[in-house]
Design brief:
Glutamine Phosphoribosylpyrophosphate, subunit 1, domain 1, globular, binds glycine, 31% helix, alpha+beta, 5-stranded antiparallel beta sheet
Length: 317
């Protein structure tokens, strides 16, 4: 049951992975994240629903070429961009998503459309047919930096486990890019959305965690979006696990502590963000960095300068 809260809460991420290599890069990413979190908070504070806020936030993050989703998505092993995205509305406990779609700007908008359909998760051929039916404009999300990254990687025989978290001109480190947004609205409803270009350089047909409840989950109590190596997130069933633990009585912070602790023991490479209906916000990671920012109803914070390795943090708990 939704409860009334005094102000909304928003947390967003732009991936997890290797370090932000320069102070300039860090400040640029901080400014982008803070701008987007401010816009999402404004939408929800202005009576938008949690779902509206999530779709807006995911769209803005997909449009930002530094992040691995929408424009700026990484390439798969065959040199093609295929994107996956999911939306879960906690108010209706309804999940929708698209898997390995191409030739469009904002996969989250297709996930949003599918919320109202009988068949709510579509993959490549079916998703393509839906784009045609909806007359979604054709768009090429490929950027020069991602093409260059793929060409370099092809020379090395695709040995990296993943493409870079952020597309930066001088970036050559492995990373784990994805974007995600979790919102609590003024009515006490929660929604979560996640979108990705995938791991990068993967086998054609590989399915990302981002369009599974393992990577994106919400109900009336909590919502979580994950980032990192999809196979690790799936093996932990991380988003659903944190939400269910919170629903069963752990605090959001305890659910993050326990779940990220298990991920560390299991040597996973991932991160997660979340919030609950009481207004608590939390994040956790096993990776080097987590690119996330939040609005707690009063001020904006971010996770860009957490220490290396496992970290869990929270506010409003
Ligand atoms: N977490 C993004 C992916 O592995 O596809």
């Amino acid at each position: 049951m939704a409860i009334s809260v005094s102000s909304p809460r928003v947390i967003i991420h732009g991936g997890a992975g290797g370090s932000l290599r320069s102070k300039g890069g860090l400040e640029a990413v901080r400014s982008i994240l803070r701008g987007i979190v401010t816009r999402v908070y404004g939408c929800v504070a202005d009576d938008g629903s949690a779902r509206d806020g999530v779709v807006l936030g995911c769209r803005l993050l997909e449009d930002e070429p530094r992040f691995n989703a929408g424009t700026g998505s990484v390439l798969q092993s065959d040199g093609q961009v295929r994107m996956s995205s999911a939306l879960m509305d906690g108010a209706s406990s309804r999940f929708s998503g698209v898997i390995n779609v191409s030739g469009l700007k904002n996969p989250i908008e297709v996930a949003q459309f599918l919320q109202g359909e009988r068949d709510r998760v579509l993959s490549d051929v079916g998703a393509k047919e839906l784009l045609r039916e909806l007359q979604v404009p054709v768009f090429n999300p490929l950027t020069d930096l991602r093409l260059k990254e793929w060409m370099e990687e092809r020379k090395g025989g695709f040995e990296r486990t993943m493409a870079s978290t952020l597309a930066e001109p001088q970036d050559d480190e492995a990373g784990r890019g994805t974007i995600g947004v979790v919102v609590l609205d003024g009515q006490g409803n929660i929604a979560a959305g996640t979108s990705t270009g995938g791991k990068g350089f993967e086998r054609v047909g590989r399915v990302s965690d981002s369009a599974m409840p393992a990577g994106n989950y919400a109900n009336g109590v909590a919502g979580v979006s994950c980032t990192g190596i999809g196979e690790d997130i799936i093996d932990e069933c991380l988003a659903a696990k944190i939400v269910v633990r919170t629903t069963d009585g752990l605090s959001l912070r305890e659910a993050f502590d326990r779940s990220i602790g298990e991920s560390t023991e299991n040597r996973r490479d991932l991160g997660a963000i979340g919030l609950d209906r009481a207004g608590a916000i939390a994040w956790g990671k096993t990776s080097e960095i987590l690119v996330a920012a939040y609005h707690d109803g009063e001020e904006i914070g971010d996770t860009l300068e957490l220490g290396d390795g496992m970290q869990v943090g929270s506010c409003g708990v």
